[in-house]
Design brief:
single chain, mainly beta, Immunoglobulin-like, 5-stranded mixed sheet, 11% helix, binds copper (II) ion
């Protein structure tokens, strides 16, 4: 009897180690693919560029995703918001900088509700921070320079990326990593264009990359989700 105890303990310990190691290495996967423009062409350079596409995954079974501690940064430089398109997880604090010699203002127009919020006007070298606590599209404007506008997409989960359409090919590549295995809906946001197929049901498999190619197009060719 006594002789059996040692091997059993060793086997149990080994199983525990193996399953713990497996769970850690293989619990997440990636989603990657291309974004093609369908019956549309966009300007991909300069201050009025439409090169940015936000690609994001909405879990079918949402969990609690702690917001990042690190702040995101949006600058105002040369009378342009930089970046022009920003995706953040809800709960993220954004530092709004002013790198111009002029005063700038920041106010938000919430796409969902039509409400506005002015967070102030400040001078060169100063910054104001704001924490976004609601999901949705926030159009960011400056009262002093009416031509200035940026788009901030506030998302429920941290599984997103901002892809850039290349001018010549009118095509972008994207990849979203470290996504827990499970079922998601893949969505793409572009200022002018919509997904041709509508939202896509996507399965993320541990340790693998799921390929999802997306076509974005003008509203009349897009399918509503
Ligand atoms: Cu301004």
């Amino acid at each position: 009897m006594r002789n059996l105890v040692y091997p059993l303990v060793v086997i149990a310990a080994a199983c525990g180690l193996i399953s713990a190691g497996f769970a850690q290495a293989a619990a997440t996967g990636s989603v990657a693919g291309s974004i093609e423009l369908h019956k549309a062409k966009v300007k991909t350079h300069g201050a009025k560029s439409f090169k940015d596409v936000v690609v994001y995954l909405e879990p079918l079974a949402p969990a609690d995703y702690p917001p990042p501690v690190e702040h995101a940064v949006m600058d105002q430089r040369g009378l342009v918001f930089i970046p022009h398109v920003m995706a953040i997880q809800v709960g993220t604090t954004v530092d709004f900088l002013n790198s111009d010699h002029d005063r700038h203002n920041v106010y938000f127009l919430y796409d969902k509700t039509g409400e506005t919020l002015d967070i102030g006007t400040w001078g060169p070298g100063q910054a104001v921070s704001y924490t976004f606590t609601e999901t949705g599209l926030v159009i960011t404007l400056c009262q002093l320079h009416l031509e200035m506008a940026a788009h901030i997409l506030v998302l429920a989960s941290p599984f997103f990326t901002v892809a850039e359409i290349e001018g010549e090919t009118q095509r972008a590549e994207y990849a979203i990593h470290s996504v827990p295995a499970g079922e998601y809906v893949l969505k793409a946001w572009h200022k002018k264009l919509k997904m041709k197929t509508g939202d896509l049901r996507t399965t993320v498999t541990a340790g693998r990359t799921t390929t999802v190619d997306v076509a974005i197009t003008r509203s009349k060719y897009a399918q509503q989700p």
